[in-house]
Design brief:
This protein is an alpha/beta fold and 540 residues long. The chain is built from 17 helices and 14 strands. The longest helix has 36 residues, at 341-376.
Length: 540
């Protein structure tokens, strides 16, 4: 069934209608519709439309210039890093301009050509894997994964070609260009990402989106975008299928307030008014195939991108595969990998890193142990049963940060903090914490003995924090899902706010880590952990 023509609504008409409703809007009995997921409708249209028009005008002036500018910055960084890495390898192997050795002069020309070909191929490969795609840069680990993947392929092919064709690329040359170039590319992308994130959090360099869907699904999407301002999406307005109210009402969600611009037939007009760059559709099942196809044709004329929001959340990009069958796009969601070769690699990384860390940090651990003992004369270590992988119970080891016998007063502290009904309990003003213990917690030094648990195999460096037996059992499938992986010294929720993260967000982040584990993700979490510890973010 084809879509009917767009419902037109003029801002001036909305303001006139708003004036006639001003008295009822201002009253305490303003119409509201509470919806699942934290959404509500409230009639506060005129102010919303005025704000909307002002924002749209400002956004139109900027246009998509920031995307072109940022893309040029990424191109420039990639070019400089690749040129620098290849030049360094070339100089170290052949010198810049060999004039003394006739043999080197003879091989210098072909080697220079080979270096130029390698640099151009490397630069092109980063583009072929779409590592510079504006929709990827600035958020998530997919950008880094594509950079690493493209680099690995280029150098793998270069090594094989050098062996077969007997070119001038020696192992020493590749061993210089590869690590220098890869580290430079990742570091350069990280610097650009931080700059982009700062601008996006300030409201710049954003992609304006109109959302088409039901209030509950819109609320979920707005909440997700609100938690990730660095993603660069801002919701300019929403269209609700079969919406019978007048345009200009507000949809109130946990992430903020957005104006309702009409129903599914008002989409085109809403896009023009908001000057949106994209439309996010959460009501696919309501529109149907014919309406979706017709809408896609109309969006092409408006130069607006279409984003289809699936019903599932917290699914990482590498797990999604698009499989068109008879022109019907199907999303295949790969099952999480918690066995086989990837887990052997994770275990090897745990062993190497934890052994090196123990060797380097032994003086720090000795000093911490002496401080704990001198503080109150009690035991240095705190040992407690925790739930590990597959539900196995193990003994966790930490530096003791609470007074002796603190477990007996846990219920009293929980009541004093008003946390009787909370799934997890950790208080910043817990009277059981000792003077030295508070410092150890703030600096995370109390966690260092867990490196012994990592070496022993009961824990991993990265994973959900180990639970006390019985903890979290009130949350459906929480304990069971976490038990699929080893608990970790650090994890996704620790680098997302640490102790300041809400219970709901901690549960969501734990599920997200278990479902989307990858080596690259672990490396990102380790790097973010170092930064969080140095800054003492949310630790107590």
């Amino acid at each position: 069934m084809p879509m009917s023509g767009p419902r037109e609504f003029a801002p001036s008409a909305m303001r006139r209608r708003g004036k006639s409703r001003a008295r009822s809007v201002a009253s305490d009995t303003a119409p509201r519709l509470t919806v699942p997921g934290g959404g509500a409708l409230a009639g506060t249209g005129p102010d919303s439309i005025d704000r909307l028009l002002q924002d749209a005008a400002a956004h139109k002036a900027a246009g998509r210039a920031w995307q072109r500018s940022f893309h040029r910055s990424v191109l420039a960084v990639d070019a400089m890093v690749i040129a620098g890495a290849v030049l360094l390898a070339h100089i170290s192997r052949f010198q810049l301009l060999p004039v003394d050795n006739p043999a080197e002069r003879e091989g210098w020309g072909p080697a220079t050509v080979t270096s130029i070909v390698l640099a151009c191929t490397w630069f092109a490969a980063l583009g072929l894997v779409q590592s510079r795609d504006v929709s990827l840069v600035g958020v998530g680990s997919e950008e880094y994964r594509r950079v690493i993947s493209a680099t690995a392929w280029v150098f793998g092919i270069a090594a094989v070609a050098s062996l077969i064709l007997q070119t001038q690329l020696s192992r020493g040359y590749l061993m210089i260009a590869l690590p220098v170039g890869l580290l430079g590319l990742v570091a350069g992308r990280h610097v650009l990402r931080r700059r982009l994130g700062e601008r996006r959090r300030a409201g710049d360099f954003t992609t304006r989106v109109v959302v088409l869907g039901r209030p509950d699904s819109i609320a979920v999407l707005c909440d997700s975008l609100g938690r990730s301002p660095s993603s660069g999406y801002t919701v300019a307005g929403v269209c609700i299928p079969s919406y019978s109210g007048e345009p200009g009402a507000d949809l109130i969600t946990a992430a903020g307030v957005v104006p309702v611009l009409g129903d599914e037939n008002a989409v085109e007009n809403a896009l023009r008014i908001t000057q949106a760059d994209a439309i996010a559709i959460t009501a696919v099942e309501h529109l149907g195939h014919e309406k979706m196809r017709t809408l896609a044709w109309r969006l092409d004329a408006l130069d607006v991108d279409m984003i289809v929001v699936p019903g599932m959340t917290d699914i990482a990009g590498p797990r999604l595969k698009l499989r068109p069958i008879d022109n019907l796009p199907l999303f295949h969601i790969a099952r999480p990998r918690h066995d086989g070769l990837p887990m052997y690699g994770k275990r090897l990384f745990d062993l190497v890193f934890s052994v090196l860390a123990l060797m380097l940090l032994t003086p720090v651990m000795v000093a911490a142990a002496v401080a704990v003992k001198m503080d109150d004369g009690g035991p240095v270590f705190f040992r407690q049963d925790r739930v590990g992988q597959h539900g196995r119970i193990f003994r966790i080891v930490k530096f003791r940060t609470m007074s002796v016998g603190a477990d007996a007063r846990k219920d009293v502290e929980r009541v004093a903090a008003g946390a009787e009904n909370r799934v997890f309990f950790k208080s910043a003003v817990d009277s059981r914490i000792t003077r030295v213990g508070r410092y150890l917690r703030e600096t995370s030094l109390d966690e260092l003995p867990q490196l012994l648990n990592v070496v022993g195999g009961s824990m991993s460096l990265v994973g959900p924090r180990p639970l006390v037996p019985g903890e979290g059992s009130s949350v459906e499938y929480f304990v069971e899902n976490r038990a699929r992986v080893k608990p970790g010294m650090t994890g996704l929720w620790q680098v997302s706010g640490r102790s300041g993260v809400s219970e709901e967000e901690r549960i969501r982040l734990d599920h997200s880590y278990v479902d989307n584990w990858s080596w690259v993700h672990d490396l990102v979490i380790v790097c973010r952990t170092v930064r969080a510890v140095l800054r003492r973010d949310g630790a107590y």
